[in-house]
């Protein structure tokens, strides 16, 4: 068979496979509609249905990756299935997601990575506004940054947990690549000002010191805001990501300028619904201890004794008094697990206050 004939045969096979894929996706979408009808029919009058189940989505994605035999890698397969699930869920009820805006931020990228592109994403001007929108029921979930692998904790998010009663329903880890962006009118040899979020400026500090040591660094509310400003200025540049570059029509003068190639940010999904155990979970708590010698040791002993893996511990000033602090702790396990219950009970006996922020599936990717 000639090369031309082989190509024709392969294209015919691809067309046939595409038709089968479309048929299967349509079947899945109709099944999602049936799920919605069953849920609505079984609900007591006046009660709102819960269509999105974080534990169910986490299980599906992990199961698909376990079945995957290539040639597409697990990350790509998970991304494809997440979008199918997102579109099917939108037939039941489109999710409304609040994130730290404006459009084009890494928070929006994290929201779309976790929920897919079929959601209604709503930008907020500040992290506290994301919490308020979720608390008011104006959106289903919120997405907020909590820590960066280079610069550490995002304190505005930690402080917001002290002020609002929110449940953590999930987490997203996003690899962060920063680019130096310029507009069509930018005179690249005359740049006197570089805009970005304070965290991003810090994550690119060494690169900036080496390449633009005498240029003013201006911290703004978000990377997307930085990109917007550059559009109208001939002597400025912005540090931001791919989404902001595409959204605001900027070009990359330099790519991947972050100081650490593994630079990543962890985001939390906040909502109002408790998430059942999946067998591969994390839990976040806030603990306030009595101000006495050995308080931190007493807090950590139950975790050590029971072999509980702590993944993060942060301190923040307490709102209850001067020079008093609260501890934010993440650890492996679900608060409904018998062992975790026992650990939390022991901590509660010594603590002034203990608040479980939520148990949720570990980030799939």
TrEMBL record:
Taxonomic lineage: Bacteria, Pseudomonadati, Pseudomonadota, Gammaproteobacteria, Pseudomonadales
Database matches in NCBIfam families: CM_P2 (TIGR01807), PRK11898.1 (NF008865)
Pfam families xref list: ACT (PF01842), CM_2 (PF01817), PDT (PF00800)
InterPro entries listed in its UniProt record: ACT-like_dom_sf (IPR045865), ACT_dom (IPR002912), Chor_mutase/pphenate_deHydtase (IPR008242), Chorismate_II_sf (IPR036263), CM_dom_sf (IPR036979), CM_II_prokaryot (IPR002701), G/b/e-P-prot_chorismate_mutase (IPR010957), Preph_deHydtase (IPR001086)
Naturally occurring in which organism (per UniProt): Aquipseudomonas guryensis
Protein name: Bifunctional chorismate mutase/prephenate dehydratase
Domain ACT: 284-361
Catalytic function, reaction form: prephenate + H(+) = 3-phenylpyruvate + CO2 + H2O; chorismate = prephenate
Enzyme Commission (EC) number: 4.2.1.51, 5.4.99.5
Gene Ontology cellular-component annotations: cytoplasm
Feature type site, description Essential for prephenate dehydratase activity: 265
Function text: Catalyzes the Claisen rearrangement of chorismate to prephenate and the decarboxylation/dehydration of prephenate to phenylpyruvate.
Gene3D superfamilies associated with the record: 3.30.70.260, Chorismate mutase (1.20.59.10), Periplasmic binding protein-like II (3.40.190.10)
């Amino acid at each position: 068979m000639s090369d031309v004939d082989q190509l024709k045969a392969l294209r015919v096979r691809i067309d046939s496979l595409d038709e089968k894929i479309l048929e299967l996706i349509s079947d899945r979408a109709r099944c999602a509609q049936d799920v919605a009808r069953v849920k609505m029919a079984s609900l007591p009058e006046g009660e709102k249905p819960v269509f999105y189940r974080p534990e169910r989505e986490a299980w599906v994605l992990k199961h698909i990756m376990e079945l995957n035999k290539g040639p597409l890698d697990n990350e790509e397969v998970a991304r494809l299935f997440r979008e199918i699930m997102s579109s099917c869920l939108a037939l039941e009820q489109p999710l409304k997601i609040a994130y730290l805006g404006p459009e084009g931020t890494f928070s929006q990228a994290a929201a779309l990575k976790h929920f897919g592109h079929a959601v209604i994403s709503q930008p907020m001007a500040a992290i506290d506004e994301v919490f308020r929108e979720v608390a008011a029921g104006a959106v289903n979930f919120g997405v907020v940054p909590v820590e960066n692998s280079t610069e550490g904790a995002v304190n505005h998010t930690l402080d917001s947990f002290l002020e609002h009663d929110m449940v953590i329903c999930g987490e997203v880890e996003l690899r962060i690549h920063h680019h130096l962006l310029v507009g069509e009118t930018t005179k690249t040899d005359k740049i006197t000002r570089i805009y970005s979020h304070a965290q991003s400026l810090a994550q690119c500090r060494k690169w900036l010191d080496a390449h633009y040591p005498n240029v003013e660094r201006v911290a703004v509310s978000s990377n997307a805001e930085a990109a917007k400003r550059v559009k109208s200025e001939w002597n400025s540049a912005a540090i931001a990501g791919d989404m902001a570059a595409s959204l605001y029509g900027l070009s990359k003068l330099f790519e991947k300028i972050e100081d650490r190639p593994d630079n990543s940010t962890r985001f939390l999904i906040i909502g109002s619904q408790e998430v059942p155990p999946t067998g591969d979970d994390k839990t976040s708590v806030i603990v306030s201890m009595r101000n006495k010698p050995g308080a931190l040791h007493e807090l950590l002993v139950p975790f050590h004794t029971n072999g509980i893996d702590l993944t993060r511990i942060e301190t923040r000033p307490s709102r209850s008094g001067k020079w008093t602090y609260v501890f934010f702790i993440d650890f492996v396990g679900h608060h409904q697990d018998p062992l975790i219950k026992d650990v939390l009970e022991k901590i509660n006996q010594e603590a002034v206050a203990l608040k479980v922020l939520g148990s949720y599936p570990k980030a799939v990717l």
